[in-house]
Amino acid sequence: MCCCSYYRGAVGALVVYDIAKQVTFDNVERWLKELHDHADAHIVVMLVGNKNDLKHLRAVSTDHARSFAGPFVIIADGLHIAWFELVD
């Protein structure tokens, strides 16, 4: 668990998981709880599925991640794509 001061002044957070490793996605809920407990209530969170080049090893589907995230979290496979979805 990170120290509360680690989040002080943060206006955004990237929560990144490896699309080829389910265990990293399983940790997302804990990471989001930690943000909720220690960060500003208005922090913007982006959920990013990393290692998009490993689609043949995909363990976490985009649909599963989208349904987990709900309508209030931006989600994309790969940071480059996430940036364009955020800007649009």
Secondary-structure blueprint:
Layout: E1 12-18, H1 22-26, H2 28-38, E2 44-50, H3 62-69, E3 74-77, H4 79-87
Parallel strand pairs: 1-2, 2-3
Describe the structure.
With 88 residues, this protein is α/β, with parallel strands linked by helices. It has a single domain, classed as P-loop containing nucleotide triphosphate hydrolases (Rossmann fold), CATH 3.40.50.300. Helices cover 38% and strands 20% of the residues. It is built from four helices and three strands. The chain has helices at 22-26, 28-38, 62-69, 79-87, and strands spanning 12-18, 44-50, 74-77. The chain has a three-stranded parallel β-sheet, with helices on both faces. It is elongated, with a radius of gyration of 13 Å. 11% of the residues are buried.
CATH architecture: 3-Layer(aba) Sandwich
- Average predicted local confidence, pLDDT: 76
Terminal CA distance reads: 34 Å
Unreliable residue runs:
79-88
Helix content: 25-40%
Strand line-up across the major sheet: 1-2-3
The largest pleated sheet is described as:
3 strands, parallel
Tally of strands: 3
Strand composition percent: 15-25%
CATH topology: Rossmann fold
Q: What is the H/E string? A: EHHEHEH
